[in-house]
Amino acid sequence: MGARFLDDEARAAFKQAIEAVENASAVEVVVAVRRRSARYLHANVVVGAALAFVGLAVMLYADHTFTLASILIDPFVVALLAGAVVQLTPALKRWLTTPAARRHEVDRAARSTFVERGVHHTTGRTGVLVYISWLEREIALVADVGLGQALPEGELARLEAALTAAMRRGGTAVARALEAAAPAMALALPHRDDDVNELPDALDEGP
To answer: Which sequence spans correspond to the domains of the chain?
Structure first.
């Protein structure tokens, strides 16, 4: 994950944003940050196969005479090396995956994380997961039913788009966009005197 995205300033900003939303409203916020939402191995296969084909063509049509063993083995070696390079190049995997496919994987992983982290266990069903996926440059919001019903129609999608747009400016920008949502959350679900912090506020950082 890009060190500049989740540096010390960004971590402090997310802490402040979570506290701002939870102190202003009855909403419980969980922020999960992931390097990627899927492995996208098709990108490794596509690049590896393409370079293996090019390598084979060069060997067959080059003036130099290659041994049969080289013709048989070398393209596979090239394919494996190319696949390894792709694994270390998130931008290439992103480029070789359609936006729809990336969004599908982010939404799937976000829903899974919502359940795994127990965001749905709050008393008033007012939890919201902010799921940030670095490779895809996408953010998904998964709100529990209590919050979903309280927010105006389209508000969650608007916030999700604002957070995603902020990703290009770094983690601090995303955190500030989340903090800016505190008034809307407070309007939908005002903070009560008996509200307790039911979910951990620490960033959930995963692979």
So the answer is: 8-38+98-205, 41-95
Q: How far is residue 20's CA from residue 139's CA, in Å, rounded to a whole number?
A: 20
- Residue-wise pLDDT for 96-127, tens only, equals 999 999 999 999 999 999 999 999 989 889 99
Domain made up of 8-38+98-205: CATH architecture: Roll (3.10)
pTM for this predicted structure:
0.88
